[in-house]
Automatic annotation (TrEMBL):
Domain named CYTH: residues: 1-167
Taxonomic placement: Bacteria, Candidatus Sungiibacteriota
Official protein name in the record: Class IV adenylate cyclase
NCBIfam families associated with the record: cyaB (TIGR00318)
The organism's place on the tree of life at top rank: Bacteria
Pfam families for this protein: CYTH
SUPFAM superfamilies registered for this protein in UniProt: CYTH-like phosphatases (SSF55154)
PANTHER family named among the record's database cross-references: CYTH DOMAIN-CONTAINING PROTEIN, SI:CH211-156B7.4
Length: 174
């Protein structure tokens, strides 16, 4: 499946949530999300700009996702092929990955609200006390939703949370 997304850093969700509700959006899930990232010792996936992620949505479900290299021709959107399956037992899958030669190299937790409206998925994420609005959908749906929510394009990023967290950890005083 083709994933097209962008993130906007915001100071607060206070203005976003009423706008989502006015658009008829519904919050489908809210809670703690844990993500675990795996690669081989020789960093085979990283060298190809690919990612293997195991994820737990607290009280909801678990998934295993493979994301392929992002397309190079889009500076405004993060576009990549994504393959995801639901799994019943995250600990069993973690052991399977280890037996196959993968090792966990990073993990993080975030608070997430998953909203759905029109042709877009909107995530309200809090990671390391930073707030992001992530929009996933077609390019047109993303543009429309960003405008409807009054998001500032100068606060937009195509970086993934792994890169954002690495950048934060490199800052002095962290």
């Amino acid at each position: 499946m083709k994933e097209i997304e962008i993130k906007f850093m915001v100071a607060s969700f206070d203005a976003i949530i009423p706008k989502l509700k006015k658009l008829g959006a519904r919050c489908e899930w809210k809670g703690l999300e844990e993500s675990y990232f795996f690669d081989t010792r020789s960093k085979t996936l990283k060298s190809k700009r690919q990612m293997l992620r195991l994820r737990r949505w607290q009280g909801h479900s678990n998934s295993l996702t493979l994301k392929l290299e992002p397309e190079k021709d889009s500076a405004k959107f993060k576009i990549r092929d994504e393959y995801q399956i639901t799994i019943s037992d995250i600990n069993v899958m973690r052991n399977i990955l280890k037996f196959l030669g993968f090792r966990e190299y990073m993990r993080y937790k975030k608070c997430r609200e998953h909203w759905r409206v029109q042709d877009a998925a909107i995530e309200l994420d809090t990671v390391y006390n930073l707030k992001f609005v992530e929009i996933e959908g077609s390019r047109e749906a993303i543009h429309k939703m960003a405008a409807e929510l009054g998001l500032d394009w100068s606060a937009m990023t195509t970086k993934g949370y792994l890169s954002i967290i690495r950048d934060l950890r490199r800052k002095p005083g962290r």
